[in-house]
Amino acid sequence: MPSSAAMPMPVGRSRLLRRAVPVFGTLAVAVIGLIAFSGSGAAVEILVDDERHEVRLSDGTVADALVVADVELGPEDLVTPGPDTVVEEELQVVVTRAITVDIVVDDRAPITLTAPVASVGGAMSVADLRHLRASGAVISPTWRSPLSDGDIVTVRRPAEVVLEADGESRTLVSLAAAVDDLLRLHDVELGPDDLVSPPPTAGLEADRPIVVQRVRFEAGSEEVVLAHDEIRRETDELQRGRTRVAQEGADGVRLDRYRTRFVDGDPTGREILSREVVSEPVERIVLVGTAPPPPPSTPPTTAGGSTSPSAPTSAPDTTSSGVPAPDDPVWDRLAECESNGNWQMNSGNGFYGGLQFMLETWRDVGGQGMPHEASREEQIRRARLLLEPDAWWATFSHQFPACSRLLGLR
Fold it and tell me: What pLDDT digit, counting tens, does each position of 279-308 carry?
């Protein structure tokens, strides 16, 4: 007769399958196999890997029963009761396999745990994180959920953050995972161009406020003046020193359409959308004389053949000092010759006004500003200072050489 410690023979196996999860000493098991042995001894039930094994031993320990049932243990597996426990009738042995799971708290680096745990709560206890449940943290999967090898447990603790939006600053305590989650929870709607810092997909950080800036655009338009150019063309149809305006200039107009960007009500930039020229500028064309003046006329002679003293053919009215009066027509005749009668002419060649003053001469006689910007009367008043009381026609010849000869003032 064989010894009671010898390997017993199997007498039957059930094929009913149902999943079970072991939890330290209590196990709901789907019976997928029953191993019974003949002979005397204590019946021991072993629950492992969702299977049930039954062996009989007349004596020995839990470790012996595991050997008989051909159950191999890993270094981290848990046996309840312990392997040194002496077997007795109707003893139930539970083997909890060690699994490896990752616990991620607030999106930080995962905590990798390898232990004989069967549920989320067990894993949190082994990792010394059980206190997070009392702090209001959200755990996924739930605290009582079973775990398998390779599972990931995520934990999110409430964060206190500052939200600045629409001119208001609020301190919020939230379990939101990201910025956009918090904004949705607190009914902060974002427009298509609004700015959010940090970005909506970023996680919440207690020391970094969330700032929402409202962005809008306004359309507008404005007219821009297109300044006209001045072109000077030489012509031999005018004597040197004379000019004539052949075409008056005119500025053009351009219509610019744009949109202005506002951030929280403050303009931050303008974008040009289109430019349309409404009217083109017209160039001002000035003709500049290049023809030499005509030769001087021969003075008349007396009966004896001698020339008469040089004198103007038509002397202007003069004051008692011999200088033409301010209202003497000679000034308009001179202006007609010098500037076509344009007392505001700027010829562009260093001569200004109706009498074509040089700027140095104008300043020498006490003129202020630019000659062509002064009135006709002021220009005449300054010109009279150039004339010597005792020989005004000689002074005309010096100051207005070409025109004084054409007008017979020499």
Answer: 999 999 999 888 887 665 554 544 444 444
